[in-house]
Design brief:
By secondary structure, the chain is mainly α. Helix content is 82%, strand content 0%.
Length: 662
């Protein structure tokens, strides 16, 4: 009997068992409605939360006496604070006894444009100049430079750590295996979760923001650098070895030059990750545009949030285009055999930096070249237009947006939330373990049991279930979009060409930006948080589904068409079943991306764990509860990730029909 036959026989049985488990859950909820739900009020604390508060207070009190702080943490914090302050002194804040930074707006625009031209091309240079000038036009020059200062500092430090580790991982298989699960954890853990522990050690301010940004930005630097080192042709390496090159010489003169384009791609991804986190780090008093957006969201000032969000998008686009152009130019120069040390290149460098020196001197010397002209500030008009647009939407589209909100809330969100929050905790735990076992594996079921018990011990069961309900609803919506648009993209090259740039932009824009227009559409509610999470997570799900559809064998598709299969039958009976592993992976990644937006949702009325984390930053007596909420988010993420991974592996086995025969 083949493994295929066994898998085929077991699949319907598992489906029936899953339906039976869900039916028993609903029956149990009806019988035990409201019992053992472990509810906890917003200001209530458990003994664990109180102990965490006391522990955090004890750490604060010992900051200037504990050797660990005195001789390590305090020095690290001082170094990071001074690094950010130094870059701010160069481009954004008064410094060195002057009322202005070293480089004013004219010098910064000139320097950035020159770099874009030298490492990219004329078109990118024009985009860079226009993008930087727009910060002043929006009335956000200093805030934008503060964000840029924090981002650049974090990127430099991330690359200083990430590139050497990436080279090591590319050269050493054992280290690569060791570091991979660590990077997986760093990338799947919701970014907000480690903000609270960081402030405990580095206090609120630039140091904590820099470390938080580095945690998020280092993994792509390591991964992509390692990939670049590993993809160097073995023939090229053997040719170098035959000429007597040592290992170090091979690295310096063969591997690194050949991997330069890939490493620059890693720099691009590191910059995008750092910019995204630099704005989110406003929760711990990071300087810049993120703080402006955060304050505007807290006061429901859509115009100000839109204005600052627009500046963040522009910065993301400029940084992305410059580094992408640099990657393409490096590859073009390598293929053409051109060297950057040629006479023409030296003249270009001398000319560009000569102009930069002159304009930089003007910005250092004259106020008109240092402070952006107030006459060019059009930010008030942008804010007014955004406010007017928000009011128009609320007045004219409220019926449609409310209808959509009510339908999804009443048909999906409320039933999920009621089922999870009104069921006894032990019933939900039993159902969770059974579902993990049926769709995943024994290991996934054990992780689920342990994770749900930890939620009970953290004293945040009720809030965790509310968050889980919102996460599941958002994931369902993500997968609806992912399947519909992903199938469309996978079947049509023209649609792929149109949608892919939109999806790329959606993935590079910082998460805060999504909240602004959605807040104007739906107001501050939990539904707003769900839609923001959907917008954030949908691009990756759509891409993964499209990739799965494209991987379906053309021969199989042609055979189905020749047999008279219609379009809908082809999609539902052939392409989607054969792309099952890709669809399952899309659901897994979509779910993790949704969960990473939990705390952002807490800023606009989502409540539950997201609100607990935010409240922990702003209210001293709730710090312990906020820390526990952050841990609860991590636990939820681990449980959902392990179950989805196990489900993905099971789908892969089913899709490939097994690998062994009996």
């Amino acid at each position: 009997m083949t493994t295929v036959a066994v898998a085929a026989a077991r699949l319907p049985a598992r489906r029936y068992l899953l339906l039976a488990v869900l039916a028993l859950w609903v029956l149990g909820w009806a019988v035990f409605d409201g019992r053992d739900t472990l509810g906890l009020g917003g200001a209530e604390l458990t003994p664990l939360h109180t102990s965490l508060n006391e522990g955090m207070d004890a750490i604060d009190d010992s900051r200037n006496s504990n050797p660990f702080f005195l001789y390590f943490i305090n020095y690290v914090r001082l170094f990071l604070d001074e690094s950010v302050t130094f870059v701010q002194a160069l481009i954004s804040q008064p410094s060195f006894g002057r009322p202005l930074p070293v480089l004013g707006w004219l010098g910064v625009v000139a320097l950035a444009t020159a770099i874009a031209w030298l490492w990219g091309n004329g078109k990118v240079a024009l985009l860079t100049a226009a993008g930087l000038l727009s910060f002043g036009v929006l009335g956000l020059w200093q805030e934008s430079m503060d964000t840029l200062a924090l981002t650049l500092t974090a990127v430099v430090l991330s690359l200083a750590v990430g590139i050497p580790l990436g080279v090591w991982a590319g050269l050493n298989d054992r280290f690569n295996r060791l570091v991979t699960p660590v990077l997986d954890f760093m990338q799947t853990m919701p970014t907000f979760v480690y903000l609270a522990p960081l402030t405990l050690f580095f206090l609120i301010g630039p140091a904590s923001a820099t470390v938080a940004t580095m945690i998020y930005a280092i993994p792509p630097a390591i991964r992509i650098t390692s990939h670049g080192i590993r993809q160097v042709s073995h023939d090229t390496l053997e040719a170098g070895a035959s000429l007597g090159a040592t290992g170090v010489q091979s690295l310096r003169h063969v591997r690194l030059p050949m991997a330069k384009q890939t490493i620059i791609v890693g720099v691009n991804q590191t910059i995008m990750a750092a910019l995204s986190m630099a704005t989110i780090a406003a929760l711990i008093d990071a300087p810049g545009l993120g703080k402006t957006v955060l304050k505007a969201l807290q006061t429901l000032d859509v115009g100000t949030a839109f204005n600052a969000g627009l500046a963040i998008v522009i910065m993301a686009v400029v940084l992305d285009r410059v580094t992408s152009a640099a990657s393409r130019r490096v590859e073009a120069d390598r293929r053409a055999g051109r060297l950057r040390g040629t006479r023409r290149r030296r003249l270009e460098l001398a000319g560009a930096f000569g102009v930069v020196a002159v304009l930089g001197y003007l910005s250092y010397t004259y106020v008109w070249a240092a402070e952006f002209p107030i006459q060019a500030n059009l930010g008030s008009y942008v804010r007014q237009a955004a406010d007017a647009g928000s009011l128009w939407v609320q007045d004219n589209l409220a019926a449609y947006t409310d209808a959509l909100k009510n339908v999804l809330t009443n048909t999906l969100l409320n039933p999920f939330e009621k089922l999870l929050t009104a069921s006894p905790w032990w019933l939900v735990l039993a159902v969770g373990v059974a579902v993990a076992l049926l769709v995943g594996s024994v290991r996934a079921a054990l992780v689920t049991a342990a994770g749900l018990l930890v939620l009970v011990l953290l004293g945040l069961w009720q809030d965790s279930m509310v968050t889980l309900a919102s996460t599941l609803v958002a994931t369902i919506l993500v997968m609806v979009l992912g399947v519909v648009l992903g199938v469309w993209m996978g079947r049509s090259d023209r649609v792929d060409t149109v949608l892919r740039p939109v999806l790329d932009a959606g993935q590079t824009m910082p998460a805060f930006v999504y909240l602004v227009p959605i807040l104007g559409l739906f107001g501050p509610t939990r539904f707003t948080a769900i839609i923001a999470a959907v917008v954030f997570a949908a691009p990756i799900a759509i891409k993964l589904v499209a990739e799965g559809i494209r991987r379906v064998s053309p021969t199989t598709v042609e055979a189905a068409i020749s047999a008279g299969t219609g379009t809908w039958q082809l999609i539902s009976k052939v392409q989607l079943p054969m792309a099952r592993s890709g669809v399952t992976l899309a659901a897994s990644q979509g779910l993790i991306y949704v969960l990473s937006m939990v705390v952002v949702g807490g800023l606009v009325g989502a409540g539950a764990l997201g609100y607990d984390v935010v409240a922990g930053f702003s209210q001293h007596q709730l710090r312990g509860k906020g820390l526990a909420a952050g841990l609860a988010i991590v636990v939820l993420g681990i449980v959902l990730d392990r179950v989805m991974r196990a489900a993905t592996q099971r789908a892969d086995v089913a899709a490939h029909g097994g690998v062994t025969h009996k």
